[in-house]
């Protein structure tokens, strides 16, 4: 915070070097001596605009996306041996601290991003050769980015200082010692910025080829809906745990009374966003093979409609994608998600396949049964023997599991999203150069098999893989295991996410209704499931669960956790729902991957004990920042 609060009259540009796959994200001001020079001409000002974009999170990056490896969706080798950035994984393992906080964004990136946005807004009128249309659009983009950086900070830290303007160099010592603002004030300011921005943002990109990833009006409205839904959620809306959380002048930072109006406001924002997105051509993705050589069954086509909704780049469901994070090159999230599928030559496998992001058993358990209800509720699912019963896959199951292959009950009789999103021992892995249902890869994950543990670190520690994140168009150079990646923008917001936000806001504001069921059922239908009412009535041991607000809340939350798994949403959702301690304080388990025989491999083995307590809902501010600025107060529990 010292850099932020001392002087905002900057005489040299700070240049970020965050990599981006789109040309506009690769341009930053170079060799510019002063702010005045940066805003003399359009070309230089455009570079500064793209510098403001460069501060966006690297979504899906295990070391840079604070919602990706921080929760309980993945386990990995620990201590990390250099093949994966494990800094955020340390938070999941309970190693966060106040002396040198892990992922210390308070003292770094996002307040710097806000300062750069303010510099842009304060100087854009100086540009000589900029049209009024361009200026309005650029200002709108930066206002949105400024809002998004405030939102990013409030999700991590709760009450934050609102950075409306940069302080002048003449500011007094007391002026620079800012204090935290009430969370409602932060959310309201953030939304007001988006409202201002939306009025001047284009509905569609004027030049789609070169501008993909830049902000449009539908993106702004969709993120506004997410922000207002977050603000209405229990963590921020009448949270009694923070009733005594106050600034040093005794100013409250949280309201202790729940406001139903926040849910109504969120529902309205979701409705407006859905209308705008659908009018702009967004719809739930359905897989259509790119090539006539791609031969798929109806079962596989459904699996690919689920999987490729994320990996088919710039598809019709994607509202906002991260151009600066595509999972390509080096040890990106696609390599880390990919299982080894083909035999390799030589003594060690090619390291282009990382294979280190490992979903734990509780993520595999999370998916529904083939009847579309939780396996612990399904009246016919053998839940008690899910970890112990072994059987061979039947011919009718051949598009999910290799016919005749022995695997555990947990991998049988599951919904299509289970098979689309997860790789597992004996599971079919469509794509990666084999796009014919009669000739597909089979993942064999036990010790000594192709996908099993090999080497010191490049393997799944649980026996599951996040297949969802690996583009099916990536190819494996068989038998050398050379992995060729086709990048795609990591999804920040897609239509299914927005539908489920709307269902949640409607249920919280007015309770169960046919309209609420309808929005959930749209997502379930793409996944090959019957509607909520039919599924629970026929198959659940809690057949009336959907008829109460509390029961439907559980259903909606489970639906979000399943549909958006591995997309960086779960960590934030569990926090805003104020249920994280129920999920993130547990034994994280996998299979006994050091075994060669199924009877021994399918034994539950603890990987580590995840850690989460009340204090972890918000990350700590470093002790040094509290010393530098005595007007700041620490987050509760730290």
TrEMBL record:
Keywords associated with the record: Cell outer membrane, Membrane, Signal
Provide the Gene Ontology terms for cellular component. Answer: cell outer membrane
Source organism, top-level taxon: Bacteria
Where in or outside the cell?
Answer: Cell outer membrane
Where's the RagB/SusD domain?
317-638
Q: Which InterPro entries match?
A: SusD-like_N, SusD_RagB_dom, TPR-like_helical_dom_sf
| One Pfam match | SusD-like_3
Q: Tell me which stretches of the chain form a coiled coil.
A: none
SUPFAM superfamilies of this UniProt entry? TPR-like
Q: Where is the SusD-like N-terminal domain?
A: 23-222
Q: Which family does it belong to?
A: Belongs to the SusD family.
Query: What protein is this chain from?
Result: Putative outer membrane starch-binding protein
């Amino acid at each position: 915070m010292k850099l932020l609060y001392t002087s905002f009259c900057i005489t040299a540009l700070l240049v970020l070097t965050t990599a981006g796959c789109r040309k506009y994200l690769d341009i930053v001001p170079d060799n510019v001596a002063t702010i005045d020079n940066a805003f003399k001409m359009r070309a230089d000002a455009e570079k500064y605009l793209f510098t403001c974009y460069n501060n966006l999170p690297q979504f899906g990056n295990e070391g840079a996306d604070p919602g990706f490896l921080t929760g309980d969706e993945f386990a990995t080798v620990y201590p990390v041996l250099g093949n994966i950035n494990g800094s955020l994984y340390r938070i999941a393992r309970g190693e966060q601290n106040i002396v040198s906080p892990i992922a210390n964004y308070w003292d770094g990136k996002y307040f710097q991003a806000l300062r750069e946005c303010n510099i842009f807004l304060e100087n854009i009128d100086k540009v000589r050769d900029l049209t009024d249309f361009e200026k309005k659009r650029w200002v709108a983009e930066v206002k949105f980015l400024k809002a998004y950086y405030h939102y990013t900070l409030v999700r991590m830290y709760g009450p934050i200082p609102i950075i409306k303007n940069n302080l002048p160099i003449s500011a007094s010592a007391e002026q620079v010692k800012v204090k935290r603002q009430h969370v409602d004030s932060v959310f309201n300011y953030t939304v007001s910025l988006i409202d201002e921005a939306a009025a001047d943002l284009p509905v569609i990109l004027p030049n789609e080829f070169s501008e993909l990833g830049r902000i449009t009006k539908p993106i702004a409205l969709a993120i506004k809906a997410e922000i207002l839904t977050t603000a209405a959620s229990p963590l921020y809306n009448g949270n009694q745990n923070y009733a005594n959380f106050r600034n040093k002048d005794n100013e409250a930072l949280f309201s202790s009374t729940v406001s139903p109006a926040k849910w109504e406001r969120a529902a309205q924002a979701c409705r407006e966003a859905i209308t705008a997105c659908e009018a702009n051509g967004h719809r739930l993705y359905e897989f259509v093979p790119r090539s006539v050589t791609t031969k798929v069954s109806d079962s596989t086509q459904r699996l690919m409609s689920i999987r490729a909704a994320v990996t088919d780049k710039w598809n019709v469901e994607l509202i906002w994608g991260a151009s600066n994070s595509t999972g390509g090159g080096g040890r990106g999230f696609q390599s880390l998600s990919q299982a080894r599928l083909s035999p390799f030559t030589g003594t060690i496998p090619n390291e282009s396949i990382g294979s280190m992001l490992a979903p734990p058993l509780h993520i595999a358990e999370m998916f529904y049964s083939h009847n579309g209800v939780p396996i612990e509720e399904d009246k016919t699912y053998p839940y008690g023997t899910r970890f112990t019963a072994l059987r061979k896959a039947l011919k009718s199951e051949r598009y999910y599991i290799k016919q005749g292959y022995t695997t555990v009950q947990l991998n049988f009789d599951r919904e299509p999203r289970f098979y689309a999103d997860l790789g597992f021992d004996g599971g079919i892995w469509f794509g990666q150069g084999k796009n014919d249902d009669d000739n597909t890869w089979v993942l064999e994950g036990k010790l000594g098999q192709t996908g099993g543990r090999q080497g010191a670190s490049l393997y799944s520690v649980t026996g599951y893989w996040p297949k969802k994140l690996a583009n099916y168009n990536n190819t494996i150079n068989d038998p050398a295991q050379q992995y060729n990646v086709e990048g795609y923008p990591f999804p920040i917001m897609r239509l299914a996410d927005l539908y489920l936000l709307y269902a949640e806001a409607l249920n919280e504001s007015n309770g169960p209704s046919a309209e609420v069921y309808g929005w959930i059922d749209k997502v379930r239908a793409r996944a090959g499931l019957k509607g909520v009412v039919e599924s629970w009535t026929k198959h659940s041991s809690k057949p009336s669960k959907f008829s109460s607000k509390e029961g439907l809340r559980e259903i909606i939350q489970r639906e979000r956790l399943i549909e958006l798994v591995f997309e960086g949403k779960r960590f934030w959702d569990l926090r805003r729902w104020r249920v994280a301690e129920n999920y993130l304080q547990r034994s994280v388990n996998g299979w006994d991957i050091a075994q060669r025989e199924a009877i021994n491999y399918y034994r539950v083995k603890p990987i580590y004990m995840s850690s989460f307590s009340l204090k972890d809902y918000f990350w700590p501010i470093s002790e040094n920042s509290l010393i530098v600025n005595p007007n700041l107060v620490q987050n509760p529990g730290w």
